[in-house]
Amino acid sequence: MARLDLTPFPVDITDLTHDGRGVARLPDGKAVFVAGALPGEKVVAVRTARHRSFDEARAVEVVEAAAERVAPRCGHFGTCGGCALQHYDEAKQIVAKQRVLMENLERIGHVTPKTVLEPLVDAAWGYRRKGRLSVRRVEKKGKTLVGFREADPRFVADIAECHTVIPAIGSRIGVISALVDSLDTRREIPQIEFIAGDDAIALTFRHLVPLTEGDREKLAAFAREQGFSIYLQPGGIDSVHPLDPTEPKLAFRLEDWNVELNFRPLDFIQVNAGLNRHMIRRTIQLLDPQPDERMLDLFAGWGNFTLPLSRHAREVVGVEGEAGLVRRARENITHNGITNVEFHAADLAKDLSGEPWMRESFDKLLLDPPRSGADFVLAHLPLKQFKRIVYVSCHPASLARDAGFLVNEKGWTLKAAGVMDMFPHTAHVESIAVFEPRRG
User: Fold this and answer.
1) Residue 134 · residue 435 · CB < 8 Å
2) Whole-model pTM above 0.90?
């Protein structure tokens, strides 16, 4: 294999990739994707990888800066892989994400929405209430690193704080690192997961060997001093248990719908609390549930949309593939005194027509699938029963594919689509779309 040419070279940046890198063309026409560069800039770059159809590089000097360039708030930006766009004006970030969505819809789905929705935004800093911190003891540095992975995922970024994580965690990463460094089992702790409710913050320590009694005492003292709840995970997800037998209440309220959702420390919750409320509100507005309508919520998780939706419809049926989340959803139904919601566990990669809850028809459909999308579900559901479909997406390419199927093969209309900035300063694109049967 030929050695990588590390000679710096000048390029003009013409566009932005979907993962937040600048796009340029070399004199021979080959594309090069440049980390740390923005459209309209002239930069000097150094190659980091070479491929047959494109090269990868990083900007080492900005010769002519774009007007939208700003100074990154975080001193670790460019090394830590948690953010890709801190150098890009916040107002321009969401515009770029909207463009990514529209380009995907056109290029992959061959569809265009009748209306482009106004982007949903909330706090751009201190928003992340759930995440996973990697842990690695580095003998050469004489310390234990706690943080996110670097741009090169083989390494853990050496950070003291994080400005996108909620301040109660983000400002204490150095303190957490010092705690782990003091433990006898510091080399056997690969990760720490954090999650925050309205009144409690949980840290779950994954440990590959049993903790010493001294380590347990240090963790307990840390929890008391810092106000955290500590959980331990010696094995799989089912092994998670509180260090203190008095288990804290992990929950958040959705005041607009008089709903309180309880969760477990490793459950999936939307990371941005403010944006989550906006997203639920928009989803319900687009679905426009009526008091006499029956709604189907697929990929429902543990009820983030389902329970608020129940306040507007005759009945809501939530379906989720993970049995643990279904149990949690049913507990939350009881906790909130809700009587018009059913929750079922079902494999959403299989035909659902034989399920008892499918025998009565539905009026409207809500989809919130994983990155892989909802292509199988849409291909096997009796779509003619629905008056409207709202699709919440965490991956614009799979949404575009599924939108193309609905519009071009099943005769639906893409009434509206838009983006939601769930992860400011990252290249992640969250979006929402609403479909209606084509008339005439």
Assistant:
1) no
2) yes
